[in-house]
Design brief:
Layout lengths: L5 H22 L7 H10 L3 H17 L6 H14 L4 H4 L4 H10 L1 E2 L2 E3 L2 H4 L3 E3 L2 E3 L6 E2 L1 E5 L11 H9 L5 E7 L12 H17 L3 E7 L10 H14 L6 E4 L10 H18 L5 E3 L2 H4 L3 H5 L8 E8 L5 H12 L4 E7 L11 H13 L4 E6 L26 H10 L8 H7 L1 H9 L2 H11 L4 E5 L2 E13 L2 E12 L9 E5 L5 E6 L2 E5 L2 E5 L12 E11 L7
Length: 559
């Protein structure tokens, strides 16, 4: 294949996007009713044949970015892309109005705008949609830090600027753990952590990005555990950040282990008024039960009395698939404002192999519905979800070879600037890459091969048969983690209205995650009960997409 320069690739891709936009204009969508779009139709019609050729070259060229031999051209692209990407807040004042208008126009494609604080101002919530100060539907696509107590060096001005200018992200999430080692509410240095948060907020402002201040509960499970500290933290933070239009607040990352929606609502109804004292219109993100997966809870019982509230859903593509994706879409269609404040390409532990095919399906679905999202995580931890390779010792100035597999995929995805709300163009540009992703990379395929022929262990419970299969395992911090997928078959003659099964293992277990069920671990035993939406299993049929991740000190089997 003939190689083309990065400038040709970039210009060709821009023309392809314009061509796609013309087709959308002809369909009469809102964003294409603008005068500028009409002029674009007249100007570009005569060039359609040329665009198809150039666009094909651009799509082929984009796939070549995955090859290591293209590293040098990637660096060149970074230099060229800087000239086309939105500059920081300070630098934005030096850009003339013509360039700013052109930049804004390039970010409009379909129904959503890739918002920047300098042009779109403070955000709010209208219906299910995040909107800018003019009421235009916007989308945020960005990056989350890992715990800033453990990876503080990644919160620096150069790194955040690179995420904005080179990667194309318009959102930076600052994750501050509350209960773990070094957590804000345990033995962490509170003043240092607060300084990292405020520094990160300022760096995001300089980079013209929106920023999430994330009260990252996890080990503490229930946000009520450290409610007093949360109230004080948000009081101080909102006082310091008063008037900052680019700040969103996430008040409870991932409630889990039996934390109810009622507990979360009780907590939210105390924290939200504290935030509102100094940030009366800031967007506030509220977590949901079961590691922010039960988005149906606020769908059926929303928090009332406040504006600009959104509810979070978290997913990890190798674990959470069509079932959770359908729940997200159903919630949005029912009128629930959803924000995916954390997701990963791998499994829910942050490790294991990536499922890039599922990741692409998630991205397409979120783009189609204008759902904003932030990927986990910006660090060099030795785990699959880390965007920076564990061998890299840099904290800024990253090249492609410094990125992990996850980092390269996210970089390529975020680089598709202008495709917000129109995933067809994005999918077309990456058709070959996505096809490869569905079969997995060599690393992912090897991880899958390791378990795809694993013997399924079967347990009977009354009329139910439970087939438990290990779909992945890995070592981390001296423990072995196992991901199980369950198929629960009803062998009876009548449908079930609910179900409950028990699995006993060969060693003491610790539950890390579970989906599409209620889980309770006790010693070697794991009790699993149905959710309200999957309790019915008709005679002869089965419930699938039920699974969990557990850890043990060594080898583990079902007894």
């Amino acid at each position: 294949m003939r190689r083309i320069s990065m400038r040709q690739l970039y210009e060709g891709f821009k023309k392809t996007v314009v061509a796609a936009g013309i087709c959308i204009c002809c369909l009469g969508l809102t964003a294409c009713g603008k005068k500028e779009a009409q002029q674009a139709v007249e100007q570009e019609t005569v060039q359609m044949q040329e665009n198809e050729t150039v666009g094909k070259q651009a799509a082929d060229g984009a796939d070549d970015l995955k090859n290591a031999e293209a590293d040098k051209e990637t660096e060149n692209r970074g230099t060229e892309h800087d000239a086309d990407t939105q500059s920081s807040t300070d630098a934005a004042s030096e850009v003339n109005e013509k360039d700013a208008a052109a930049e804004q126009k390039s970010m409009e494609n379909g129904d959503y705008i890739l918002a920047r604080p300098s042009q779109n101002g403070a955000l709010s919530v209208k219906g299910t949609q995040l909107v800018d100060e003019k009421g235009q539907a916007v989308q945020l696509r960005g990056i989350s830090t890992h715990g800033i107590a453990w990876f503080p060096d990644f919160v620096n001005q150069d790194a955040v600027m690179q995420l904005s200018k080179d990667w194309g992200a318009n959102l930076f999430r600052i994750a501050m753990y509350t209960d773990e080692n070094g957590g804000y509410c345990t033995d962490g240095d509170k003043e240092k952590l607060k300084a990292l948060v405020t520094d990160g907020v300022e760096y995001a402002k300089q980079a013209d990005m929106y920023v999430i201040v994330d009260w990252h509960i996890l080990h503490d499970s229930n946000p009520l555990t450290h409610k007093a500290e949360a109230l004080q933290f948000f009081k101080e933070m909102t006082e310091k950040l008063k008037g900052e239009k680019h700040v969103l607040y996430e008040i409870c990352n991932e409630p889990n282990s039996g934390c109810s929606w009622e507990d979360i609502k009780t907590y939210a109804n105390e924290v939200i008024p504290v935030i509102r004292e100094n940030a009366p219109e800031a967007v506030i993100l509220v977590g949901t039960p079961t590691w922010s997966q039960e988005i149906e809870k606020p769908q059926n019982d929303p928090i009332t009395g406040y504006d600009n509230i959104m509810y979070t859903l978290h997913f990890y593509a190798a674990t959470h698939k069509e079932d959770l994706r359908s729940k997200m879409v159903s919630a949005v269609e029912a009128g629930t404002p959803v924000f995916v404040s954390e997701y990963g390409l791998c499994d829910a532990s942050g490790n294991g192999g990536n499922d890039l095919g599922q990741a692409q399906s998630w991205i397409d679905t979120m783009d189609q519905h204008g759902i904003s999202y932030a990927v986990w995580s910006f660090c060099n931890k030795e785990e699959t979800s880390a965007l920076i390779a564990s061998s890299c010792r840099k904290t800024s100035g990253f090249t492609r070879e410094d990125l992990s597999e996850s980092g390269k995929w996210i970089y390529d995805m975020l680089h598709a600037k202008g495709d917000i709300g129109d995933s067809k163009t994005f999918a077309q540009r990456r058709q070959n890459q996505t096809q490869e992703s569905k079969t997995g990379t060599a690393e992912t395929a090897n991880a899958t091969d390791q378990h795809e022929n694993a013997a399924t262990q079967t347990v009977k419970s009354g009329d139910l048969t439970v087939d438990a299969q290990v779909t992945g395992s890995w070592e981390s911090e001296g423990k072995t983690f196992y991901q199980y997928q369950l198929t629960i078959t009803n062998n009876g003659t009548e449908a079930t209205s609910s179900w409950e099964v028990s699995l006993t293992f060969s060693d003491t277990i610790t539950l890390s995650d579970g989906w599409n069920g209620e889980y309770q671990a006790d010693g070697k035993k794991l009790e699993i009960r149905s959710k309200d939406y999957n309790g019915e299993i008709k005679a002869g049929e089965a419930a699938k997409d039920v699974g969990f991740i557990i850890s043990a000190s060594g080898q583990l089997t079902v007894q």
